[in-house]
Amino acid sequence: MRLIFASLLFLTATMGCGKSGTATADEKPGDRLPEQKTINISFDGYDRSFIIYLPLGYNNAGKMPLLFVIHGGSGTPEGMIRIADFRPIANKEKVVLVYPAGHQKNWNDGRPTTPNQMGINDVSFFNRMCDYMIANHSVDANSIYATGISNGGFMASRLGCELSNKIAAIAVVAATMEANSVSPNCNPNRPVPAIYIHGTADPLVPFAGGVMTAGGTAGGTILSHFQAIDRWAALNRCNNSPAVYDLPDIAVDGTTVKQRVYSGGTNASEVVSYVVMNGGHTWPQGFQYLSESIIGLTTQDMNANDVIWAFFKRFRL
Predict the structure, then answer these.
(1) In a domain, 268, yes or no
(2) Tens digits of per-residue pLDDT, 180-216?
(3) Alpha carbon 232 to chain centroid distance?
(4) CB neighbours of 282 closer than 8 A, spacing ≥ 6?
(5) CA neighbours within 13 Å on the CB side: how many for 94?
(6) How far is CA 245 from the centre of its chain?
(7) Over 60: is that where the pLDDT of 14 sits?
(8) I need a surface site. Which of 7, 68, 242, 271 has the fewest CB within 10 A?
(9) Cα separation of 168 and 290, whole Å?
(10) Are strands 64-70 and 139-149 parallel, antiparallel or unpaired?
(11) Which domain holds residue 123?
């Protein structure tokens, strides 16, 4: 039954797209209103696409950071916008957003997903999108970041390992790292600051890692949350002993959040763990795309969008 549920993952989280945005008090004369559009390209013989969001004031902001927000298995860019809507942050902080579409709604994150079995090179696809955005939009090549949930989170992990010349930092939600190929071969050419956010009661991606047999559409073997944290802390040469904090239980929603900060890495890099006690396969303060009986609780004790962007903007290539 969980396999059926997992195959439907994120299909309920849909919304329309196109030009969007209205004038705000922050708007200045000459500012262009936000624009949202879909880009279609051919890559490796396949039709691929991604949604671009150009924020309020894009024409006056100069070179801007770029944030990839990556959907989960069986998901869509439109659904990911609903789950993790970074557009308010983009307007305020002047960030260009890209919500890419996986081949057949999935990503080759190293596990035996459909794109993996087909030999789809998604790392190269992200490299191509980076080059496209730098060439065609006002994007700062030294401030490109990647975040995602589930299959998209595993993909963000892989990008940190294999595209560190383009990706300045990663943030992974409800996912870890593939254990048999991605993790052992993870050898970025520079420190990659990383955040991992994971619920202890995630029914689809086990917090404790191991063989995925209870709900994941891809299967495969994955690191535990703390194994992924330890891997990145070692790669970045961070301190072994983290600073530990309990976030305020502001929502009293059955979840609590513990933060562990591994600082002192090379080039001031950090690795940060957010463990959501009793949290599910969800985006903190994001859209509850399926019922709690299927994916578990969405914590309201932290806003993942705010936490992720506050982390990202501290780091550049």
Answers:
(1) yes
(2) 999 999 999 999 999 999 999 999 999 999 998 755 5
(3) 16
(4) 174, 199, 288, 295, 296, 297, 298, 299
(5) 16
(6) 23
(7) no
(8) 7
(9) 32
(10) parallel
(11) 2-22+29-312
pLDDT tens profile 124-138:
999 999 999 999 999
**DSSP structural state of residue 50:** E
Q: How far apart are CA 49 and CA 42, in angstroms?
A: 8
Please give the structure tokens belonging to residue 81.
Answer: 């916008």
Torsion of CA 106, 111, 132, 88, to 10 degrees: 60
CATH number for the domain harbouring residue 67: 3.40.50.1820
Residue linked to tokens 């890209």: 98
User: Residue 234's closest CA among 177, 163, 313, 149?
Assistant: 177
In this structure, the chain runs to a length of 317
Count: domains in the chain: 1
- Residues 271, 233: Cα–Cα separation, whole Å: 6
The distance in angstroms from the start CA to the end CA of the chain is 44
* Whole-structure pTM value: 0.92
Instruction: Specify the pLDDT at position 5.
Output: 35
